Hints:
The complex is a heterodimer of chains A (120) and B (107).
Chain A: E1 3-7, E2 10-12, E3 18-25, E4 34-39, E5 45-51, E6 58-60, E7 68-73, E8 78-83, E9 92-99, E10 107-110, E11 114-118
Chain B: E1 4-7, E2 10-13, E3 19-25, E4 33-38, E5 45-49, E6 53-54, E7 62-67, E8 70-75, E9 85-90, E10 97-98, E11 102-106
Amino acid sequence: EVQLLQSGGGLVQPGGSLRLSCAASGFTFRHFAMSWVRQAPGKGLEWVSEISPNGETTYDADSVKGRFTISRDNSNNTLYLQMNSLRADDTAVYYCAKDVSTWPDYFDFWGQGTLVTVSS
Amino acid sequence: DIQMTQSPSSLSASVGDRVTITCRASQSISTYLNWYQQKPGKAPKLLIYAASTLHGGVPSNFSGSGSGTDFSLTISSLQPEDFATYYCQQNFGTPLTFGQGTKLEIK
């Protein structure tokens, strides 16, 4: 059974940093691209970042470019999102998601989500 | 970026009704179109990929169609568990983009 178990998140002040983690199991993690997708309160879904299976290629939305860094540890089947210079409009539930392939495609499994609140 | 526009934004219907949600892309995306269902407080679930292929375990009362710029998701006979928000998503190019969502409510 595929499982994506997220941790991290919480309340952070504007300008602060936070790291999200996503522990994967039930599939061969190193074979698939992985993404972070966020959802602001009461809003729709926004793709944030994606990383290739070997971690060498990443894609970032313009809204987070230069502030967020996606990474992965294939030896520990874990995906990360390092979020720096956080702003109020980064407040959202963040989901990790398994891509169906090695390229930005679509998502067949999702984590449970973790809330990030940026506020003073 | 490819913009995805869904209509309607919300829809009221009754159990047993047939409903259709549409999704329009700002440029042709062939059949690189996927549909998700999201219930309150839960993660999205993949329903349909490549415009018309049902993801494993998705009931057969869901169907998708379309190509190019215009797509639709049809639920042939609404069940109580189908009341949720539905999103389309294109994977023709990066950044991957979603529609704004269609909230399906019980009448």
